[in-house]
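seq/struct pair 1
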Amino acid sequence: MSLPPDYHMHTPLCRHAAGEPVDYARRALEIGLTEIGFSDHSPMRRDDFDDWRMRNDQLDEYVEKVRRAQKEFPQLTIRLALEVDYLPGHADWIRELAARHPWDYLIGSVHYVSDSWAVDNPHKLSEWKHRDAFEVWTTYFERLTLAAETGLFEIIGHADLPKKFGHRPTRDCTPLHEKFLTAAKQHDCALELNTAGLRKDCREIYPSREILQLAFEKNVPITFGSDAHAPDEVGMNFSEAIQLACSVGYTQTCRFEKRQRRSVSL
């Protein structure tokens, strides 16, 4: 099976990953990947915003680490990217980040449903005891829709992240999903199939089959990402992700270079 690019990988600069980019690149070649992309958590304007991303003064170091991997593994296409948190009011900061280096793509992700609560943070798991799952989903997908509408991102990451710990609303969320995917299509965003969900409590790829089926019906393009935080996670469960994509009708995935997209066969 020919594997699509793994466009979601981290580095130790985010403070919760292990292994250098050269180690991820080596692993990618071992499992037969021909293209990968590093998309570590971007800095925020304030370095004390949280403790799971690189600092502002480490952005150049991050780029150098990726460039070193590109030099050491010329037989592997390695893209330079960022995973950027979308929060309302942060668009100017995202534009600043986008201008700093010649990125190949930006993944727009929503982690925060308030200024202080990232829904996927295991240290904030107790927050769920005080929250209604549908209200969380509503806020989350409203922000995901806003992220798509900015036009600042090539890819939207792990689109139903709030299910990570197994919390799911009992009410129908289809209208939320529809609105988000309509925005993604209108603003030319690809949807990421993120296999990290299979390693979490939800035991399901992000996004769900239901969301992916809607995305296919709206002709939203897709990419693949392992969300690797260690070299042995590179390309993990890609066969399941490809099977899922094909089962809803997808025959193509995307590749990016200098923020330009092209489609290739799965």
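seq/struct pair 2
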Amino acid sequence: MNAFTLTEQERALLPSDDDVRFFAEHGWYLSKKLFSDSEVDDLAEAVERYYAGERSRRLPVRPPRLAYWSPDDGDVQRHNDYVHYESDAIAKALIKPVIGAVAARLAQAEEIRVFQSTLIYKPPIAEEPSNVVPWHFDKHYWSSSSSDRMLTAFIPFHDCDEELGTITMVDGSHRWEEVGSDDSTTKHFAEREAGHLENLLKANAAHNGTEVTKIPMIIPKGHMSFHHCRTYHGSGPNRSTRPRRAISLHLQDGDNAYREFALSDGNLAFYNHDSLVRRTPDGRPDYGDPEFCPTVWRS
């Protein structure tokens, strides 16, 4: 048995042909129960140890756009990138082959690798501005990636609903023809103005002759949502009495590679990997570097 073999029970968890067609039309998918309750609890405990300072290793350099919450930042929404690299206990959950196999079905890919993992903690403070994630799609800040089949799994550690500020999709927006974007869209949403992003969403919906249909993901514990890299999404405030705890696991198909993407000022679009990963023989950043972008599934 190789590392990418599924059990019969895991194969039953894969998206059906109808599910794959649904994802192609709508740009999002709510999975079956891919983690047992005990697996989720183990992941949550590993995350608590991470917040307490436990690391299996540290990033060799600090990329310029790294999201890396520390206690000095206070009780804001926390984002910590590269948790799959820094914590073996967290990585054990994130590289579970069934996650990659689900992503491969949805992306119609033979291989799925980790692209990035971001640990997220949304404190139970309804008025905290950082809790609101404005409308955006991930491909904008993955402009140095060649693939349009990349996707993201959103993995909460508990039942997740609108009161907690769950991730919300704009239905079918991955199929829109895009208008109105500029160089600012290559930046992470945290670096961009929320009003501009809201206007960009409305302009794109109008250009495509459709309305903005928002679908909150109601995700039971052990399940996760997947969305296409061009699907607009965001999230609202946490109005509950407990934190919203989750990981955004960004995934790339095996064909994805670095590409030069020129900005209007003549510079090239940059992603944090470009400071970390090994180089290809022709000198480009290698987005297949197994140290930072491990393979989750290969069929």
